[in-house]
Write a structure and sequence with these properties.
globular, single chain, TIM Barrel, alpha/beta, eight-stranded parallel β-barrel
């Protein structure tokens, strides 16, 4: 296991010492399920990366399911230690030629105070690279922004005067205000609102619905994302044209190439 963790660190560091075009608006969905977690997202220039975690035997294990947790690495080995080294090597930012933050969206799979307390304890060790928030306002910038999804600690974050994270909430909460102070992004499954699969033009009523949801989020000063959408260029284009903030994708290289072409940089 020690050799495995050392190899993870080697593969994740030094991979972006050269110029990497940032895949604007790209959210690397379930990045850890790729052959080389973190490395592939960084090589493709992703500014938002998803990490599912379970609290297991007092460790934050990275996994999409609760099976085989004893044999899987934790968030420090797979993400936090490697990204800390990358940032040190690149002059304080993840991408050497792009001085801007990268979001780690931590999808919390286990509930309860124990999980959140372990997250706080773990993140504290990496405070040198993390942004600090007072609710949804940044009080100290950092190259890594943390966003919680899954079992979200709404009440805990509301009570804290300073924290390392904000929340990715369900889109249904757009019409509420109770937790606005700690929400920075809204996300829901694509199929909750749309049936369009990317073939032919998007139906007029669905396009209007998309525009309305984006408008609602932006009026509140928040971002919006849809997961489970058809993972193809026609859908990416429609979402970007509608000013959706984060495009959920498993096709990292393909999306990176697409946005470079769209922006006229390739």
């Amino acid at each position: 296991m020690k050799l495995f963790l050392n190899l993870l660190l080697v593969f994740s560091c030094g991979i972006i010492s050269g110029q990497v075009p940032v895949a604007l608006h790209g959210h690397a969905h379930n990045d850890y399920m790729h052959t080389r977690p973190l490395s592939e997202a960084l090589e493709s220039g992703f500014p938002s990366i998803e990490i599912d975690v379970f609290l297991h035997k007092n460790a934050l294990i990275v996994s999409h399911t609760a099976t085989g947790l004893d044999k899987k690495p934790d968030i420090e080995a797979l993400y936090l230690k490697p990204i800390q080294k990358v940032i040190q090597e690149n002059g304080g930012w993840v991408y050497k030629d792009h001085p801007g933050p990268v979001i780690f969206m931590i999808d919390i799979k286990t509930s309860g105070d124990d999980t959140y307390n372990k997250l706080k304890e773990t993140l504290e060790k990496y405070k040198d690279i993390l942004a600090v928030y007072h609710h949804d306002s940044i009080v100290k910038e950092g190259p890594i922004h943390i966003l919680f999804s899954g079992n979200k600690p709404y009440e805990q974050l509301l009570k804290e005067s300073g924290s390392y994270a904000t929340i990715d909430a369900e889109i249904k909460r757009l019409k509420e205000s109770k937790y606005d102070a700690v929400i920075t992004r809204y996300s829901d499954p694509w199929g909750t609102y749309f049936t369009w699969t990317g073939s032919g033009p998007m139906p007029t009523d669905e396009k209007a619905r998309l525009d309305d949801l984006v408008s609602q989020a932006h009026k509140k000063g928040k971002d919006i994302r849809f997961y489970g959408a058809p993972d193809k260029e026609t859908v990416w284009k429609e979402l970007l044209d509608a000013h959706v903030d984060w495009i959920n994708t498993d096709k990292l290289k393909e999306y990176s190439h697409f946005v470079q072409v769209k922006a006229g940089t390739k």
